[in-house]
Amino acid sequence: MPLNRREFNLSALTLMAAVLSKISPAYASAQVSPAFKALNRLTFGAPPEAVAEFEQFGFEVWLDRELAKPASNDDLKRRLSAATLLIEYEADRDDQKHSWPARKDVIPYQYLGASGESLLPLIDFETLGMSYEERIRPAREVQAASLIRAVHADAQLREVMTQFWHDHFSVNSMRDEHTAAYFVLYDRMMRVQALGNFRQLLGEVTRSPSMLYYLNNEASRASPANENFARELLELHTLGAENYANDQTTSWADVPGAKEGLAEFYIDQDVYEAARALTGWSFGDGREVAAGDNAPLSGAFHYIDRWHDPYQKRILGVEFRANAGPMEDGEKLLDMLARHPGTARFVCGKICRRLLSDEPPTSLADKAVQVWSENFDSPDQIAKVVRAVALSPEFADAPPQKLKRPFEFMASFYRAVGAEVSSPPLDFIWTLSQAGWNQHECRPPTGHLDVAEHWANTNLVSGFASIALNALEDSNGAAKLALASATPKDVKSAADGVRFWAARLHGSPPPDDAAGFTAAQLAGDADAALPDDPGEREVLLRGIVAAAALSPQFLFR
Amino acid sequence: MADPILVVIFLRGGADGLSLISPSGDKDYAAARPSGLRVARKGENVGYVLKNANADADFRFHPRAKGLSELYDSDELAVVHAAGLIDATRSHFDAEDRMERAAPGQGTSAGGWLGRWMNAVRPEGILPALAIGAAAPDSLRGAQGVAVAEEINALRAAAGHGYSTAIRALLARQLGGDAILGAPVKRLLSLSDAIEARVALDENGNMRAYQPSVDYPKDNPLSGSLKTVAQTIKLGLGLRVSTVDFGNWDTHVDQAGQFADQVNILSSALLAFWRDLENHRDNVSVVVMSEFGRRLKSNESGGTDHGHGNAMMMLGPKVKGGRMYGAWPGLANGDLDEGADLAITTDYRSVLAEMMAGHMGFAQTGTLFPAFTGSALRYLS
Fold first, then answer.
1. What residues in B contact A235, CB-CB < 8 Å?
2. Phi, psi of A414, deg, nearest 5
3. Predicted TM-score of the model (pTM)
4. What residues in chain B have per-residue pLDDT under 50?
């Protein structure tokens, strides 16, 4: 039987009514230093050494150094080559009567530098029998490495933008063995291109085996073409749903701009035609193209001309002549989309939303679009846009208002406390999924959404509490850190610990009444001392750190 | 009598209604698809015939839809075909958005159709709305009091942790007044207390596993979701609406095997859920829907692309089951939407509006579906 209104109030809201009245206005409006603001938005969080580096160089120099950092350095290489990950499966057999023994080993990553050709055995189902876990192993390594990179990579801004593009050009690596095996190439490409040129990135994405498989373009041939990739190319990757005008007309000539040379919006007919333009953009996995004719075993993008629909097309009002040369239709399509004003608005708007706020000021988006459009052909087009956004007055003026998403929350937590994430077991992927984040396994091709309206729910709060409380537990295994050794010796009381760790995590130590409240909740008494027993001391400090992480100052950036 | 409850199962990705409930005797259907993408009328893998069909097209459930067929034959399940969103969109996300917000031209501030119901009715229970999944769907937008979880245990903050009491107090103090997180924090904390007041916990503070009254199919991703709904209903937490997302219906390539698996998951889990509800079936209705159907003519990679009209299914105490509703438009070229897809003869809102009025007892359906003036199918008694 449901609780009635009175019982509901008494049972659940009593506590809240008591504590809500005590919220300190000073606690809620503490000033945020430029270092914390910039580091929280442009990196995976602000440990003391990053704050010091930022303050040493100043924002602009720091930013240019970040933008210039390569995708990897010796420290990251050393970390990734030292990392290990469990592989475990039962003995089994497949439909071709191949069988394999059980396995349980903790082994180093082996695929992060793999070539496309060397991955082919993982998608060979005819001659090679092996466990599913072996076939998807490359994606598992990327997933595990993503936490090491987010926490420890020197090129933090590049890592943030890599994650941004993973969401923008989202591939569910676990869709099947093909997307999983080739996901290492996708992730590597994304990191290299993350601050580069959008047209270049778009081409790499379109030809990447994981994307070819995820949205089925590898199977698209005349005729009818498979529309899956072409539709998401227009809707999610370039023009965006905001430029989809299918409810206005079914005739290309009626779309504004179409008869003048370039349609402002797209309709279903453009999707159909774009799909035709991309027929034959496939994959070199030895597949049968026609009787007696096979694609090469290259493990790379492969264009199959005889699968291509060669006849004339009209996309966004632009005529594509019949019988163009190999891949010309597709390249022309990507050129058009990358330079389209609608793409500039859509993608720049997303970059602003990611780096600043759910509803970025129009003036900022306009600025980003201008830089984007002036640099269509620059090799560092994206870096220039990011730079313009980061150095804008809008960026400096905006208060922290962007809710962290679960992966950012976890990574920034580990960074802020100074944890060593060396060989994270995949349990952290499951933990994130409980909060609604599926790292490299987002089901719909939209990627994870980027507005608080989507995230601010009970599932997220419950997940954040669980991450904050358990991230440093031995049973979690992702990170190593003795909080006691990271806490200064002169921190004697629980309340001092609360102040120290709050300052460490978000730069704003709470006022005495708030620190006392936290100490009382965790240690039983506002004036409690830190316990002498090392075990008890560590448990209390974990509670203190969790409390600091579950504050608005840490959750909003 | 207990308050009525509505469960909306959304098949994300655009389920192929022409394979789920198939006009297997239609010659245009046979001509448009290879045999693997059709439901067979004879041979080994024949579909289950629907009685009381609304057209002479030998309608059949997919051969893996045994559970659905059983519910239909027992006059519990009703079917409406050629239903959907009349707007011209073949984008998943645009279609879902339009369908679930259901307030054309009103912008996002209008929320979703279930959100508007919540705001109009303000149900008093502790858990009036439960979204199964990682986030609430657009249909629940705009409402306070929506809980989002895969399982009930996730609605207990810091469950089983030594600091759970302390962390709850700290969440309330630090975030209870936050403009963005305040509402979900308060909801989570009140749910934590309410759930713990009425379920048995083991010595580690964990909830005991739910004991359904029937066996649900194993290795079935929908089973877990529907078990959570059944458990919530039985716990008496005041549930009124629940949304269940079930994805993976976007079958552009190699549809035959994948679609069969999906249908089996849906059919077997829904049957188990319905039987598990026992006497709660007197209060619970279910609607199964998807953002659009799929193209009549298959593509060259063994799949089907985004289409238009689709089937919807309804269960509930007032549902006059074992019948097909709506008009069948046919599949000849001139009968199709844009010459390509199953046309829509029933606006999906007419199905939902009748459910909200007839089952949920909410007559002001104009609030939920502004500007909608269509008539009811009269599938409820």
1. 91, 93-94
2. -65, -40
3. 0.93
4. none
Report pLDDT digits (tens) over A477-512: 888 898 999 999 999 999 999 999 999 999 989 999
* Nearest in space to B84 (alpha carbons), one of B337, B361, B335: B337
Pick the closest to residue A440 from A192, A174, A107 (CA basis).
A174
Q: Which residues of B touch A466 (CB under 8 A)?
A: 158
pLDDT of amino acid A501: 97
d(CA A270, CA A279): 14
Give the other-Cβ count within 10 Å of A310's Cβ.
Answer: 16
SS3 category, B203? coil
The dihedral through the CA atoms of A296, A302, A308, A311 has a sign that is: negative
Residue A102 CB: number of other CB atoms within 10 A? 10
Task: Answer yes or no: are the C-beta atoms of A273 and A329 closer than 8 Å.
Answer: no
Residue A22 pLDDT greater than 50, yes or no: no
pLDDT of residue A474: 77
pLDDT value at residue A383: 98
Q: Is the pLDDT of residue A16 over 80?
A: no
Closest approach of B185 to chain A, Cα-based (Å)? 6
Residue A251 has pLDDT above 90, yes or no: yes
3-class DSSP assignment, residue B4: coil
Q: Residue B11's pLDDT is what? A: 98
Section A224-251 average pLDDT: 96
Residues A168-204 pLDDT 10s:
999 999 999 999 999 999 999 999 999 999 999 999 9
Helix, strand, or coil (residue A136): coil
Kindly give, in sequence order, each residue whose CB lies less than 8 Å from that of residue B219, ignoring residues fewer than 6 positions away.
none
C-alpha distances in angstroms, A275 versus A222, A278, A279, B262?
A: 9, 5, 6, 26
How does the average pLDDT of chain A come out, rounded?
93
| Chain A closest-CA separation from residue B164 CA (Å) | 9
Q: What is the C-alpha to C-alpha distance for residues A495 and A241, in angstroms, rounded to an integer?
A: 50
Closest CA to A445 of A290, A245, A206, A232: A232
Is A227 part of the contact surface with chain B (CB cutoff 8 Å)?
A: yes
The 3-state DSSP class for residue B123 equals coil
Q: Using alpha carbons only, give the angle B259, B45, B14 rounded to the nearest 5 degrees.
A: 20
Q: Are B167 and A469 in contact (CB under 8 A)?
A: yes
CB proximity list for B188: less than 8 A, separation 6 or greater? A458, A461, A462, B147, B155, B157, B171
Q: Are B108 and B102 in contact (CB under 8 A)?
A: no
Contact (CB<8Å) A20/B176: yes
CA dihedral A112, A414, A33, A49 (to 10 degrees): -70
